[in-house]
Amino acid sequence: MGARKRVREAILQVYERRLARALEGADTPTHVGIIIDGNRRWARAIGFDDPNAGHRRGADRIADFLGWCDEAGVSVVTLFLLSTDNLSRPEPELTPLLRIIEGVAEDLAGPDRRWQLRAVGALELLPAETVAVLKQAEEDTRDRPGASVNLAVGYGGRREIADAVRSLLAEHAARGTTLDELVDVLDVDHIAEHLYTRGQPDPDLVIRTSGEQRLSGFLLWQTAHAEFYFTDVYWPDFRRVDFLRALRDYAARHRRFGS
Length: 259
Hints:
By secondary structure, the protein is of the alpha/beta class.
């Protein structure tokens, strides 16, 4: 490591420690959602011919991120790993990406991990082998004491809402509820009870890396009152200091919840 790089690293460490101290006692999000973006662009910028090099590097960053969330006291994390739109990619692109995601699930479910994993998305659209890995990760981590971690794979916000309404209608049809009776009582809570994230608090903070400033269908229902933080950093380069900056930005906002 050159002298200039060592100086930059030392300055960054000092800045990171100051950020962490400044956040002591600050308002911390209970649920953080993150749109992991920029893996392919990172790979191109570095000079890799294989874009999956970026996905693999990004996969290695996930456990670090969850550790930072643990340190901050975040109890629910949702990782947007693969959208339903991504499922239309050509097979030579999609299959390696699915294998990487399977590796992420297996790593996060390892015996030295504390997190409880939940797969959220249209799992019926995924290959059977991918579903099997995700379901096994859920089973292996069911009783762990750490944060709840949602792995959004084959996820689309519009599809989630449609699936929730479909599930709601099927439930009431099984009870013998007529359509007129359902219309009289239906409210937002009934739909929320059928979302993929049912039983969990809605996200307080959503982070997106890579400079894009859109949700891309991520948790459309649940983010009605969320705060958003966009950073130009590509996901493979996302550091603890970047996460602390997002927390600082969140703590500085006055959340009015529509008032």
